[in-house]
Amino acid sequence: MNFQAQILAEPVLEFGGRGAHIDPRVGLMEFGPLQPVPGDRIKIGVIGTGATVDGFEKFLERCKAGIPGKPSPLINLHPGFPGMGNTNPFRCVFETVGSMQRRIPQSDIRKIAALPKQSDAIKAAAELFGDQARALLEGSSRPDVVVAALPVELIQKIVNARAVDESEEDDVDADAPLDFRDLFKSQALLLNVPTQIVWPTLWDDDAKVPRKIRNTMRTVQDPATRAWNLLNALFYKAGKAPWRLPRKEGELAVSFLGIGFYRDLDGQRLLTSTAQMFDERGRGLILRGAKARTDRGDRHPYLERADAYDLVTRSVKAFRAEHLHPPARLVIMKTSRFEKVEAEGMLAAADELEIPHRDLVWVSEGGHQTLVREGDYPPLRGTSVQIGQDLMLFTRGSVPYYRTYPGMRVPRPLLLRPFSCDTPIGELGAEVLALTKMNWNTTQFDQALPIPIRAARQVGRILKYVSYGQLERSDYRYYI
User: Fold this and answer.
1) Which helix (H) or strand (E) covers residue 316, if one does?
2) 76 DSSP 8-state letter
3) Beta-strand runs (E) in 120-191
4) pLDDT, tens digit, 9 for 90 and up, residues 62-83
5) In whole angstroms, what is the distance from residue 47 CA to residue 50 CA?
6) Residues 181, 183: Cα–Cα separation, whole Å
7) Strand ranges, E, within 292-380
8) Would strands 101-103 and 41-48 be described as parallel, antiparallel, or unpaired?
9) 254-478 has which CATH code?
10) How confident is the model over 199-237, as pLDDT tens digits?
């Protein structure tokens, strides 16, 4: 069997004034964010110890002056942050003042660090910061975003870092019974204000946070990159769109629905989490689905027909409420293969709601197939190979614009496996590649997962701590 490799072009993003560029940082510098408001202010509430609140505030001041890029020939990968003056890429002011700050006594931190069990310390820390956030929001100066600035001694107690990709915020021991980040964010769903967790490695270039295994230190991004990523995340969480995927003339109104699965706290029930993008701006809806089932090998979770029908129906109704019309095309991405009864329920809902174009795609990770590029270089990002009806797609890989492969591990491709599709698999591959650039926690554009799948996974991690009947936020900003 012959295979023909194709390199998909790096997707372009749209910024203010319809400016376009492949790099979020260049696009923001040259054109600004979508629909900038002159004189707009983003108010940031900060919770932490005296040292961490001061450290965060000083880093904001440092961002205002501008931060040089990392000394490196890879200038596109490590650009400087231009500051908050005339070249302010976000065209707004980021501010925090004393009335929007809560300083936690060091004695409270020591009490938590002294608890014998890590799970008890995680619960106590989440409760402490949650209480402080509620008290902050009861004040007269209501922030747009609340930042939890953790001290090193608390991080060492409540975080057990086996994961190495800090951009994914997965610095949690897989065996730990609780995850501070996800527990805190589950409690913060009641606050009606998005949250951001930061560490001293954000503002202190010399700060070290040891890992609990192998006695190693964490790798930390350069200061300019930290500034780019922090301010972009705060900008998005404040309800503003930094960039979007451009919509072509005459293109169908489309809704992307990502479906993921998670287990509840006791590990007994397998539940569904979904994230739906309303449009190319990334506005979306978070839904919790019904209990899932698994195949005989307990490897492929799926929904029963009625539950799949209900999930799609609720999703499309939410789209209609936002746009006053249903989508003309529905793309459903799932992290496990589609079962026949599940797909029947989804397609039946699409039929009833008169959605003519439907694509059901299994986005599979960690397959057995890969490509080897001549020499010692990983495949180029955007490399795709059609294998029968499936498409192998490298969303990570060497990036010509960066002039390097900006990863630590050998990149693994995604395998797009269509179940029932009206769109050619090559076009779906280009859409998936574009959707990897809709991650607002970073301004480096070579992300691995399309945002519907990434978001559904993040949402599931938090919803596992949220009991049925508790208030759930539909806005994705509360989950990242």
Assistant:
1) helix 305-323
2) T
3) 145-149
4) 999 999 999 999 999 999 999 9
5) 9
6) 6
7) 293-294, 301-302, 329-334, 357-364
8) parallel
9) 3.30.420.10
10) 999 999 998 887 764 445 567 899 999 999 999 999 999
Position 175 pLDDT exceeds 70 = no
What are the percentages of helix, strand and coil residues in the chain, rounded to 5? 30, 20, 50
Q: 205 — phi, psi (to 5°)? A: -65, -20
The answer to whether the beta carbons of residues 13 and 27 sit under 8 Å apart is: yes
Q: Which residues pair with 360 in a beta bridge?
A: 332, 420
Q: Is the pTM of this model over 0.85?
A: yes
Residue pLDDT, tens place only, 306-363: 999 999 999 999 888 888 888 999 999 998 999 999 999 999 999 999 999 999 999 9
Structure tokens at 462: 């938090």
How do the domains of the chain map onto residue ranges? 36-237, 254-478
Q: What does the alpha-carbon distance between residue 225 and residue 208 come to, in Å, rounded to a whole number?
A: 18
Instruction: Report how far residue 118's alpha carbon sits from residue 372's, in angstroms, rounded to the nearest whole number.
Output: 43
Q: H helices within 193-245, ranges in order?
A: 223-237
Number of other CB atoms surrounding residue 41 within 10 Å: 12
CA angle at 414 for the pair 408 and 419, rounded to the nearest 5°: 165
Cα dihedral: 218, 120, 125, 216 (round 10): -10
Please answer whether residues 85 and 124 qualify as being in contact, where contact means their C-beta atoms are separated by less than 8 angstroms. Answer: no
Helix axes 180-188, 451-463, angle to 10 degrees: 90
Q: What is the rounded distance in angstroms from the CA atom of residue 242 to the CA atom of residue 447?
A: 17
Residue at 417: amino acid letter: R
CATH 3.40.50.2300 fits 36-237, yes or no: yes
